[in-house]
Design a protein that fits this description.
27% of the residues lie in helices and 25% in strands. It folds into two domains: 116 residues, Rieske [2Fe-2S] iron-sulphur domain (Rieske Iron-sulfur Protein); 232 residues, Naphthalene 1,2-dioxygenase Alpha Subunit, Chain A, domain 1, CATH 3.90.380. Strands 13, 14, 15, 16, 17, 18, 19 and 20 form an eight-stranded antiparallel beta sheet that branches. A four-stranded antiparallel beta sheet has the order 6-5-4-7, with no helix packed on it. The protein has a three-stranded antiparallel beta sheet with strand order 1-2-21, covered by helices on one side. With 425 residues, the chain is α+β, with helices and mostly antiparallel strands. It is globular and about 70 Å long. β18 and β19 form a beta hairpin. It has twelve helices and 21 strands.
């Protein structure tokens, strides 16, 4: 009896993305959001091959610190060993497979499997095996160290690659996205940090729908009308009137960059802030001008940006800095892990203001997130009507300079998706 066919040889992705540059048309087949075989193939050809975001070095600030999370469908441990080095381990005992760490974060000298008490140091070595003499003379603890994933970091942002031979270097993979990570990392001379605490939520929708939503400013005024009305009542502008531009950063990465609708806690004061903060923020702005020059200082302190690092990392750098990892949970569900980021040396009153806006807009109960979750779930339900074949992502293809309300970032994502999905297994 022959083995059942695998998705790698049964899924035809050749007509999922239809791009006609001359005709300014970009269509995506709705099967890409609902088909289980496509979802499985994504795991093999995207999440098993690309560099994936794990966390930030500030989350493991001292020897022994660790954080556990799911990356690309695999449980891992981000850990700083007693030697000070940051590593990423598979969170599975080398004996029978149980988790060796069941806490979300903390500090540990060692990780102990609860099944048979095999013990691993925070550098991954197997240091304890009860009744080891029963394994015989050929048993070598070095052969059973925790699986260490290929890891690299850029400006404190830690990524791993499960494809240890074929993923290339992280620097090459990030391409021009590095410029945007620099704009974030340069917001503090002493370093940026992930604020303690993690938000977890999800949606009954395909993960790619929330990726598209996150880089789409076309929907902002219509879907987030409550927030637009709130900000306009305070004298701010909705994105449609603020200019800015969209950029293809290579390798599926993209960004929107535009003037802020409201204040930025770093150095962009507006009347929505307390008057007492104005001198401090103006002094900070001048300090950035002295460090980087007027043009770069303006980009760092006076512009908002939404960065997509393919496949599933979003960083929204606005009033607050929000890091979001968007993971698939089968074809019809997704999981979101979200963190706030801020300068380590930020004044307490500015930190409080930043975190307030982090919760107010992109928090699970904020102005934006419930709207976004409801609409992507509505899209997923709408796909049940199979009489419509394609979604249209053509907005802005007829412009020489893409605007932030155009769909360039989504097209950049899908172009890379198409390239990887069509690659040989």
């Amino acid at each position: 009896m022959s083995a059942p066919a695998t998705p790698s040889n049964t899924v035809d992705v050749s007509r999922i993305v239809l791009e006609d540059v001359a005709g300014a048309s970009f269509l995506v087949d709705r099967r890409a959001y609902v088909d289980a075989d496509i979802a499985q193939l994504e795991q093999q050809r995207i999440f098993d091959r690309c560099w994936l975001y794990v966390g930030h070095e500030s989350e493991v600030p001292a020897p022994g610190a660790f954080a556990t999370r799911n990356v690309g469908g695999r449980p891992v441990i981000l850990a700083r060993g007693d030697d000070g080095a940051v590593r990423v381990f598979a969170n599975t005992c080398m004996h029978r497979g149980a988790f060796v760490c069941r806490e979300a974060a903390g500090t540990a000298k060692a990780f102990r499997c609860p099944y048979h008490s095999w013990v691993y140091s925070n550098q991954g070595e197997l240091i304890g095996v009860p009744g080891q003499d029963a394994y015989g003379d050929c048993f070598d603890r070095a052969d059973y160290a925790l699986k260490q994933h290929r890891m690299d970091s850029y400006r404190g942002f830690v990524f791993i690659a499960f494809d240890e031979a074929g993923a290339g270097s992280l620097s090459d993979y990030l391409a021009e996205a590095k410029e945007y990570l620099d704009l974030i990392a340069d917001q503090s001379e002493v370093g940026m940090e992930v604020v303690r605490g993690t938000q977890l939520h999800g949606a009954k929708a395909n993960w790619k729908l929330l990726i598209e939503n996150s880089v789409d400013l076309y929907h902002f005024r219509a879907l987030h009308k409550r927030y637009v009305d709130y900000m306009e009542s305070m004298g701010s502008q909705a994105p449609r009137e603020r200019g800015g531009f969209a950029r293809d950063l290579g390798n599926g990465h993209a960004a929107n960059e535009l003037p802020p609708a409201a204040a930025r806690p770093l150095a962009h004061w507006t009347p929505m802030f307390d008057e007492s903060l104005k001198p401090q923020m103006e002094a900070t702005r001048q300090h950035f001008i002295d460090r980087f020059g007027a043009q770069r200082a303006q980009r760092i302190t006076g512009m908002n940006r939404a960065l997509l690092v393919f496949p599933n990392l979003m960083i929204i750098d606005a009033i607050a800095i929000t890091i979001r990892k968007i993971d698939p949970v089968g074809p019809g569900a997704l999981a979101v892990t979200s963190w706030a980021m801020a300068p380590k040396d930020e004044a307490p009153e500015l930190r409080a203001l930043r975190l307030s806006h982090y919760l107010t807009f992109l928090g699970p109960g904020g102005f934006a997130t419930p709207d976004d979750i409801e609409i992507v779930e509505s899209c997923q339900l709408g796909f049940a009507n199979r009489s419509v074949d394609y979604c249209n992502l053509s907005r802005g293809m007829n412009r020489e300079v893409p605007q932030t309300t155009d769909e360039l970032p989504a097209r950049v994502f899908w172009q890379r998706w198409r390239e990887l999905m069509a690659a040989a297994p």
